[in-house]
Amino acid sequence: MDETLDIQAVLEAAIAEGRQVLYEGNVADYIPELAKAAPGSLGGCLIKPDGTVYAAGDYDIPFTMQSISKTFSLILALQTAGFNRVFSKVGMEPTGDRFDSILQLELKDWHPFNPMINAGAIVVSSCIRAKDPFDEFLKLVRKLCANDSISMNERVYYSEKQSGTRNRAIAYILMNDHILDGEWEDVEDILDLYFRMCSVMVTAKDLAHYAMVLANDGIDPTTGEQIVTPDIVRVVKTLMLLCGMYDESGEYAVKVGLPSKSGVGGGICAVAPNGMGIGVFGPKLNKKGNSVGGEKVIQYLSSHLGLHMLSDGKPYKSIAF
Ligand code: GLN
């Protein structure tokens, strides 16, 4: 990346650009508590490996990470159960179906296609080996985001636990087909863990720090600590690139070219090839369930800072705008 670029100015311009498309999206309401988010919010944060933080807009508003939790739970499952065990239960293939689809479990394969869709993440949750899996999850999130005050939003958790009939249906199909792993007594306990993990609150700044650690092969460059092994980080980043934006992952890869993960709370984290981490938040979502303003912000950053992982590192004028 060109070091003379004014990253703060580019980020502010990206947020202004993102605001222009907010009218195209809607706040998620299928989990009733999520509908209370302020629809006009939009913010972003970018952290360089030397610790320099660039932030603009609503970068410090907490929101529930929702599907972004799927990357953390995958890390925890790989750390505690191992690669072979986890991928004997879930695939590594992108799917063209919605994130909460049941279709493929019946029509294509009993195993969920990948860990980034709901069915896959429920299986991955069942693979986690720990006495108190949620406690281990929270510890990992706090460490990777460098924020010890991260906690769960009880209201969102209860709201999803009460309304999450589709996820419940998925989990019961998976149980019926013997795909779930571990010594769980009750499938409801796996769902409870999944709902809790989705309800952990972060800010765009927390996500930027997390993405920066992933961008540095699992080392937090601000402390030097290796938090996740490079092997696990490589697996997680590859799946983020291929499947992290659900059935929009291909188009997003063409336009943005960064391993990323979104959630219906409106967050997206994106891993830049030069060791930078990006986090954005905007609760208005497009039809695929991805933050409409957030995607625009990251797309703008990718082209103006030259971050597309398959480009030459120079700013480019996107033909996709
Ligand atoms: N908790 C949400 C669900 O299971 C997460 C989905 C998402 O962020 N796409 O429906």
TrEMBL record:
Pfam families: Glutaminase. Substrate binds at S67, N118, E160, N167, Y194, Y246, V264. The keyword Hydrolase applies. GO terms for biological process: glutamate biosynthetic process; L-glutamine catabolic process. It is an enzyme of class 3 (hydrolase). InterPro entries: Beta-lactam/transpept-like, Glutaminase. Its EC number is 3.5.1.2. It catalyses: L-glutamine + H2O = L-glutamate + NH4(+). HAMAP family: Glutaminase (MF_00313). This is Glutaminase. It comes from [Clostridium] aminophilum. The gene is glsA.
